[in-house]
């Protein structure tokens, strides 16, 4: 009987230590902006839109594209004069993964920054972007 009590105590201590180890584990940090040698990009996930704010070191003459297809809504072309741009897209546009591919309320896509207007070259930037939206609560009564 005493052995069972000791084993039960050890199991409890082990479970407590294991729970404590998991509770102090740091949460992963999610950046809403990234910076390269040529640009700084910030992403905000607002209701019904993804907003990309971009600042370039030099006047931008390249192309920014969200997702795999270069549609008008998902593409921004530099005018060779400005260094600051904003691109706003719907989270479910531009080929974002959604529905059964992603968890509900999560939209995943790729951001491509090409610094040349027609060529892909070394030094171009590609980032995976993720927006997570929480469903609002509905009360009936």
UniProtKB/TrEMBL annotation:
<feature type="domain" description="ZP">
    <location>
        <begin position="44"/>
        <end position="141"/>
    </location>
</feature>
<protein>
    <submittedName>
        <fullName>ZP domain-containing protein</fullName>
    </submittedName>
</protein>
<feature type="signal peptide">
    <location>
        <begin position="1"/>
        <end position="19"/>
    </location>
</feature>
<dbReference type="InterPro" id="IPR001507">
    <property type="entry name" value="ZP_dom"/>
</dbReference>
<keyword id="KW-0732">Signal</keyword>
